[in-house]
Amino acid sequence: MTAAQRERADLSALLGELGPEAPTLCGGWSARDLLAHLVLRETRLDAAPGILVPALAGYTKRVQAQLAARDWPDLLEQFRSGPPLLSPYRLADAQVNAMEFFVHHEDVRRAQADWQPRVLPPEAQDGLWRRLRLISRIGYRQSPVGVVLQREDGGASMTAKRGPRTVTLVAQPGELVLHAFGRDAVRVETRGEAEDVAAVLSLERSF
C-alpha cells in the first residue's frame, strides 16, 4: 500500500467516525466541505482549476457546494473508492495525492481536542521530506528573512528562502510540511532572532 492509499483509507475512516459537521483547520470548512473538495479535485476536472486560479473560483465553489449537498455516506464512499479508472489522479495517485491527503488528514485530526502528532514510519517521513522542497519555496516566498528547514530526526536540512538573516525551523518532516502549507497547529522548534522568528511565524503561507 502506498502512502497515498494509506492516507486515503485513514482519512476516510476518520471522517466516517467524526461525521459531516466535524470542524477542520481549512478556513472554516466542515468535514463535509473538505470531503466535497477532495471529491471535486479527483472527479470534476472541469471545476478543479478554480482551486488554484482565482478567476475560476466561482464555478469551483458552486460545484463544491453541489457535491457537499449530497448524501454523506455516498460522498464518503466515492472518496474512499478513489478516482474514476481513467482519471489522471488514479494514474498518478502516489505522486499527487500523498501530501495532499496527509495535510487534509491532519486538518481533520488537529481540529479536534487533545490532538497529538502521529508517529509516522520512517519511509513516510522520508517521502514527505522529498516533497517538501518545492512547497517550502512557495510557502515561505514572502519571508523577509531566510528560512532553513531541518529534520530533528537526522539533521538533514534545506533552504526554503535565502535572506540577510536566517530562521531555522526544526521538526519532523510532517510537521514542517504542515507549517509550510500554512498550518499553525504544529510542533516546530524555532531558532533565530526573536523578531525574525516572529516574522516567519506570522507569514501568510498560502498557495
Give a description of the structure:
- The chain has 207 residues and is of the alpha+beta class.
- The chain folds into two domains: 3-109, no CATH class; 123-201, Nonspecific Lipid-transfer Protein, Chain A (2-Layer Sandwich).
- It has helices at residues 3-18, 31-43, 57-68, 72-81, 88-91, 93-109, 122-139, 173-180, 194-201, and strands at 146-151, 157-161, 166-171, 189-191.
- It has a four-stranded mixed beta sheet with strand order 2-1-3-4.
- The longest helix is centred in the middle third of the chain and has 18 residues, at 122-139.
Set down the secondary structure blueprint.
Layout: H1 3-18, H2 31-43, H3 57-68, H4 72-81, H5 88-91, H6 93-109, H7 122-139, E1 146-151, E2 157-161, E3 166-171, H8 173-180, E4 189-191, H9 194-201
Parallel strand pairs: 1-3
Antiparallel strand pairs: 1-2, 3-4
Helix pairs in contact: 1-4, 1-6, 2-3, 2-4, 7-8
Biggest sheet record:
4 strands, mixed
H/E element sequence: HHHHHHHEEEHEH
| Weakly predicted, low-confidence segments | none
Structural domain tally: 2
Short overview:
With 207 residues, the protein is of the alpha+beta class. The protein has helices spanning 3-18, 31-43, 57-68, 72-81, 88-91, 93-109, 122-139, 173-180, 194-201, and strands at 146-151, 157-161, 166-171, 189-191.
List keywords for this structure.
207 residues; alpha+beta; Nonspecific Lipid-transfer Protein, Chain A; 2 domains; 4-stranded mixed sheet; 4 strands; 51% helix; globular
